[in-house]
């Protein structure tokens, strides 16, 4: 009986990571980052697009920070279920737009994490000032 329980535990340990690895990332819901910003994403439609809102905790402005709308698209999930995505945020309190691109990862415990990079473009008064408009 002792050897059977040992084999059963070994089998469960070997099957555990496979079952978790089959879990797919789900972008829908509330996401928070380490700086205190948060965003809420709607469910994906049939085309893989989504919408939502972004509330940043950091901004280079003295204006009141407002919740801002976002629009995005997700790559159709692969068999591994860790898709890439992109979205833009139209800031309601500044003359700028930010584009984010990233990938959703699921770890062995089922925790979902978004890894992203962003590019912000702010309005400048002339083409001559375009060099300083992107961060």
Automatic annotation (TrEMBL):
The keyword Signal appears for this protein: yes
Keyword Ion transport carried by entry: no
Major subcellular site: secreted
Disulfide bond annotation, renumbered to this chain: 25-104
Quaternary structure note: Homotetramer.
Similarity comment text for this entry: Belongs to the avidin/streptavidin family.
Free-text function comment from the UniProt entry: Forms a strong non-covalent specific complex with biotin.
Protein name: Avidin
Organism: Fregetta grallaria (White-bellied storm-petrel)
